[in-house]
Amino acid sequence: MSNSIGRLFRVTSFGESHGPVVGVVVDGCPAGLSVDQGTIQRDLDRRRAVGQAGATPRREADAVRILSGMYEGCTTGAPVCMVIDNANVESSNYLPYPRTPRPGHADFTAKIRYGGFNDPRGGGRFSGRITAGFVMAGALARAALGRIGVEVHAHTVAIGEVEAPVCEPTRVRELNRRNALSCCDDRSAESMVQHISEAEARGDSVGGVVECVVLGLPPGVGEPVFSGLESEISHAVFSIPAVKGIEFGGGFALSRLHGSAANDPYEFCGDSVRSVKNDSGGILGGLSTGMPLVLRAAFKPTPSISLPQQTVDLEERTTAELIVRGRHDACIVPRGVVVVESMVACVLCDLCLRRGLIPGVMV
Amino acid sequence: MSNSIGRLFRVTSFGESHGPVVGVVVDGCPAGLSVDQGTIQRDLDRRRAVGQAGATPRREADAVRILSGMYEGCTTGAPVCMVIDNANVESSNYLPYPRTPRPGHADFTAKIRYGGFNDPRGGGRFSGRITAGFVMAGALARAALGRIGVEVHAHTVAIGEVEAPVCEPTRVRELNRRNALSCCDDRSAESMVQHISEAEARGDSVGGVVECVVLGLPPGVGEPVFSGLESEISHAVFSIPAVKGIEFGGGFALSRLHGSAANDPYEFCGDSVRSVKNDSGGILGGLSTGMPLVLRAAFKPTPSISLPQQTVDLEERTTAELIVRGRHDACIVPRGVVVVESMVACVLCDLCLRRGLIPGVMV
Amino acid sequence: MSNSIGRLFRVTSFGESHGPVVGVVVDGCPAGLSVDQGTIQRDLDRRRAVGQAGATPRREADAVRILSGMYEGCTTGAPVCMVIDNANVESSNYLPYPRTPRPGHADFTAKIRYGGFNDPRGGGRFSGRITAGFVMAGALARAALGRIGVEVHAHTVAIGEVEAPVCEPTRVRELNRRNALSCCDDRSAESMVQHISEAEARGDSVGGVVECVVLGLPPGVGEPVFSGLESEISHAVFSIPAVKGIEFGGGFALSRLHGSAANDPYEFCGDSVRSVKNDSGGILGGLSTGMPLVLRAAFKPTPSISLPQQTVDLEERTTAELIVRGRHDACIVPRGVVVVESMVACVLCDLCLRRGLIPGVMV
Amino acid sequence: MSNSIGRLFRVTSFGESHGPVVGVVVDGCPAGLSVDQGTIQRDLDRRRAVGQAGATPRREADAVRILSGMYEGCTTGAPVCMVIDNANVESSNYLPYPRTPRPGHADFTAKIRYGGFNDPRGGGRFSGRITAGFVMAGALARAALGRIGVEVHAHTVAIGEVEAPVCEPTRVRELNRRNALSCCDDRSAESMVQHISEAEARGDSVGGVVECVVLGLPPGVGEPVFSGLESEISHAVFSIPAVKGIEFGGGFALSRLHGSAANDPYEFCGDSVRSVKNDSGGILGGLSTGMPLVLRAAFKPTPSISLPQQTVDLEERTTAELIVRGRHDACIVPRGVVVVESMVACVLCDLCLRRGLIPGVMV
Q1: Over chain A, what HEC string results?
Q2: Which residues pair with B298 in a beta bridge?
Q3: In a domain, B40, yes or no
Q4: For residue D224, which residues of chain C lie inside 8 Å, CB to CB?
Q5: D304-343: per-residue pLDDT in tens?
Q6: Tens digits of per-residue pLDDT, D295-311?
Q7: Max Cα–Cα distance, chain A, nearest Å
Q8: DSSP letter at B118?
Q9: Which domain does D305 fall in, by range?
């Protein structure tokens, strides 16, 4: 239950890591949106990240197949079902985990929740692979947002303790695809790669932080009280496995400031109102201010590591040592960049539809 | 739109700061829950926080009135409507703000969103006063959770740069009501009071961090993918005005660790499985682990300050200086403690109902 | 649970027959809608129906009180809470019913459903009195629909076996308020009054049929597959106590025709497409055709009758004879006319909002 | 939008008549439900109805493919995606309809609604073929209901003016599969076949009525006010193309009775309470009484007929004559029987889950 998100742009995720497919149904996508299959594929390819530092050796085409909702190159207004096939599966590694659950993974909690009936192969429904569905949905959302001039761009701002210098929101789109890390600063990217490689060499993993900026969002988007921008975006972003924290604008740092420093004074910029700085991250009262929306998501390190770990044997009811086998990423943060973009895009598409900013039929 | 939250335990908020009432309708509260009016009132009184350092001089009884859904001291299964009256209102101070919006408040964004028709008095629908409704709903949720042994306790862990030492989750309930700050460490509380007072004296304000722990939550609660615990809780907590960040367990600090340090190894504790440490904050795969659930919410400083601020005059279309009048808190963090508890309780009550852990009729 | 209906125009009902109030919260009402309190009251007065043939002798002012969401005579975009007080309650008559449930009422089913905790006074949550909340919500919906030229009118077409002749949809609005029965044909109305009076004199009751027409609805309104017009409207109309059947256009009679007779041929009428007849009731594929929407709702006879009835004594576990006391209507159909209009209006307002036909802010 | 239905047992429909697949995602199906692929296929085969009187000559295997949510023969608690392929498509017949819309079909309304972007081939999203998805979802729902002893059975009670005699609810299951019409009375079935054949021979079509009974439903199921049984069931059943009316128990006939005749007196039957008759159709106050739930759905005649019909030419803006080509059923009522069963089962599964009667994990 609750594999759907969104009220008017409604995304339903399905599929498991080692089942036939991973897929998504998008209901509420406006009719008449011209979406090239290649557009969706480009985002999937960014998520696939073959050859990236720290990326899984699992190799799959991840080629999108559109099963419904498109006709003659345009959305029809009917639900769009999209899938990728799971071609390259090695399930045998996963057989021990229902008995000796991997620390940091959902093996134990899922077993309890689903009475042991959950599919354990490759993490099943809890695999990061299901985010391919998020990306396919996000591609539609971004196409719709693009028609009203709203753009969503994310970048890697930290890997472990390596932090990139601050990047102007407006410059992210030109800088975030220059390296495999999706980091806007090449020098930091090099250090990040090195940090990941060192961990990988030891059989360990690292986490990091993704920052996402939204440009072109007009003021007044959001549905307070319970569907304000922070509420809706955090809801979606925490659906990405491994995210453990989120902050908007100044975020946690704001809590250490005085109001006189934290408040964003207003000014006119030509005919439009803007704030001199943007510590609110483009959101006040759950509503967009018209300034760039800025948020950061903290990813914990990939829980799959090759080092021996302590777990329990649920049959013997003893402590046990575990070596996690199977293919995994030493760092999933760079692959998470497009996933964050996708979820943020889905939320904004939904809220812009609710606000009437995106028409039901694109013409 | 979207003044409701929850799927089975559904909370609908209504009311404005200076309208007749602030209220809430709770639909889906199990029948047969014996709730003393005093229980609700006690939580409201904690939110009211008269006489606290930095608290608003606005004085109101905030006495709960139950308009429906209770009969002979028990919930009936019908929607419970509860209100408090707005007795002590001084609206004239707020008249200038639709024209010269206050920095850090929703004056500007709400005016755009609602075409100028929003009620500006006391911030209207965007006032922190509407959280009284959250607290009344939370009192019902906590009563229901209490019947299955689940407790929600929050405390102030930072005010500005003053941080309290770490407090064991299991000790929060005995320590968090010993001072007006709801801080578990008395010495820190004193420094916090001083920090607030200094800011207040300058006409300034401060922010802070609230930590919330949940005890007694059985493993396997949560509805992944899009209704995992982090998703649902963050959604609710960001509905509290001034919250700009949230993290679970190790949160942002986790992103700087290696997997070998971040993963929580399992062990047996008698017959039950627990983790040796709890950096996941009691959540894996969006599901509860059975360990204490731990989250932290960052509050920005109260945007209402007495110092002169730069804003714009939307009629003259010029920059303008603004002095915010009206009653306000120099720090709303201590009053936010019970509000965080309430929203977390509402979410958990909803998820426990979905999981079948709370029966539809309490007997 | 499920005391709410609608996706964007969201109506939450609360209150019991003998509690402090009966009320409603409307979330999603566009800002800037100028609604006179008198407009709401007029609809409430039509429901109140004092002095009508067969109407309950319960006498109450049923004066609407607006608790939130309005400012300076306009909706603000915030949730609108409206209540009427329950002034004139005589609860003692209802005390036996949890033990000896009234046939045709919800006494037995509600007792099972809520474990005996439901409020039995006056039928509690199952009283027809809660439809006063529907009417208050409907008044807002109709005001919004009126701004785009959509009108909803209902009339009594049958009382028991007395049927009124067919009335052209476009003539309902000028004819349906000419008599207390809301019947468009005065002569039929007289027979209906007589039929009700005869039943009333015997301590019995009668049912009937209400027809509702919607004029001015543009083509293409509705959200198939699961939110087509018939689905959404029937959902709402069956929420009215005593409704046991609904049909659209030709309805059940259509099932006896051949396709060649049932299909509505198209023609041009000036520049616009219309159908020569309208057996589809203005709906094809769940979407409006632009022709008048026509539906009929069957009301069972009021279950409260003064004649002795057979029931069970749930304590003695025997059969028992029951005489229902308390005030009740010998026929609630005429009072149901405005309730049907209200529920249909709420649904159409929701669907027009989803379709973008009603703006989020009325200007 | 709104291709989903249900709150806890959530069915999302996708696919078009001539696209790659027709499918469904079921979210919220309890884990551990052992569902044989053959069970799903048997219901699909009943809907396929090859060789039935009046059935379409379109021949397809309609073989279910399960894409997710099942593992080792059981549901996992993850969303179950199921599809059938569209193998045998002849789209060219449908090309004229966006210009000369077929009377009785959604060609005109869908064109308006989706700005001409809807897929017109085979009726696209508005084809009766999408009900194959309903049937696959229904098979899961029925399996879950079966575990708590709830059964759903439907039968054909009228074809055109040919009506079958009343059948005791408890006898439907043994009688409704004895003939291709799903009619419990063989002699009536013969007359119905003849009636259909005559219409077919003339190039015409006929409608009819399906009755559905639910056995074994315990008392107290339903979620008033807005999710009572009639509301939820009618919502689902009107999603079936061609349904134009629904009634519960005595339905429209009840509106012509006196209360003294319409009320169902209670009696004891051993230890349990039942009503002497069941004119309420097993529902009071939106809640189940424990008696058989009985409803009837009126199907209009198939709008596709071979006779010449009047329509409009939307390009020339003139009246035009239309001959509908393509394969279609002269009567879809017998094929609708399993579809009605399926939708009713989905609703009841949802309501039983909300009520806690079906556990989240089947063991």
Answers
A1: CCCEECCCCEEEEEECCCCCEEEEEEECCCECCECCHHHHHHHHHHHHCCCCCCCCCCCCCCCCEECCCEECCEECCCCEEEEEECCCCCCHHHCCCCCCCCCCCCHHHHHHHCCCCCCCHHHHHHCHHHHHHHHHHHHHHHHHHHCCCCEEEEEEEEECCEECCCCCHHHHHHHCCCCCCCCCCHHHHHHHHHHHHHHHHCCCCECEEEEEEEECCCCCCCECCCECHHHHHHHHHCCCCCEEEEEECCHHHHHHCEHHHHCCCEEEECCEEEECCCCCCCEECCEECCCCEEEEEEECCCCCCCCCEEEEECCCCEEEEECCCCCCCCCCHHHHHHHHHHHHHHHHHHHHHHCCCCCCECC
A2: B209, B245
A3: yes
A4: 2-3, 106, 125-126, 239
A5: 999 999 999 999 999 999 998 866 789 999 999 999 999 9
A6: 999 999 999 999 999 99
A7: 72
A8: S
A9: 4-354
Which residue of A2, A69, A115 is in closest CB contact with D363?
A: A115
> Residue C244: which CATH number?
3.60.150.10
**Contact: A356, C354; criterion CB under 8 Å:** no
Number of separate domains in chain A: 1
Q: Hey, are the CB atoms on C117 and B83 less than 8 Å from each other?
A: no
Whether A345 is covered by a domain: the verdict is yes
D200–chain A nearest CA distance, Å: 32
Record: contact A68-D361, CB cut-off 8 A: no
Contact C117, B361 (CB under 8 A): yes
Cα separation, A362 vs A35, whole angstroms: 12
Task: Give the span between the Cα atoms of B226 and B286, in whole angstroms.
Answer: 9
Which amino acid is it at B183? C
User: For residues A336 and D290, what is the distance between their CA atoms, to the nearest angstrom?
Assistant: 52
Q: What is the token pair recorded at C272? A: 């616009």
Q: What is the pLDDT of residues C18-63, one digit of tens each?
A: 999 999 999 999 999 999 899 999 999 999 866 666 676 667 789 9
Given a contact cutoff of 8 angstroms between Cβ atoms, the answer to whether A171 and A268 are in contact is no
**Distance, CA of B302 to CA of A61 (rounded, Å):** 51
Q: How many CB atoms lie within 10 A of CB C187?
A: 10
Q: State residue C99 phi and psi, 5-degree precision.
A: -90, -45
Residue C14 to residue B67, Cβ atoms within 8 A: yes
Residue D77 with chain A: CB contacts under 8 Å: 113-114, 117-118, 125
- Assigned domain for A362 exists: no
Structure tokens belonging to residue A105: 């993974």
User: Three-class SS of residue C204?
Assistant: coil
Cross-chain CB nearest to D287 (options C109, C223, C230):
C109
3-state secondary structure D298-350: EECCCCCCCCCEEEEECCCCEEEEECCCCCCCCCCHHHHHHHHHHHHHHHHHH
Distance from CA of C356 to the nearest CA of A (A): 6
Residues D356, B360: C-beta atoms closer than 8 Å: yes
- Angstrom distances, CA of residue D359 to CA of A155, B357, D136, D167: 43, 10, 21, 33
Please list every residue in chain A whose beta carbon sits closer than 8 Å to the beta carbon of residue C8: 354
Determine the Cα angle at C70 with ends C68 and C73, to 5°.
150
In a domain? residue B361: no
The ipTM, to two decimals, is 0.97
Is the pTM above the cut of 0.90? yes
Q: What are the pLDDT tens digits along chain A (363 aa)?
A: 699 999 999 999 999 999 999 999 999 999 999 998 999 999 999 998 666 666 766 677 899 999 999 999 999 999 999 999 998 777 788 888 889 999 999 999 999 999 999 999 999 999 999 999 999 999 999 999 999 999 999 999 999 999 999 999 999 999 999 999 999 999 999 999 999 999 999 999 999 999 999 999 999 999 999 999 999 999 999 999 999 999 999 999 999 999 999 999 999 999 999 999 999 999 999 999 999 999 999 999 999 999 999 999 999 999 999 998 866 789 999 999 999 999 999 999 999 999 999 999 997
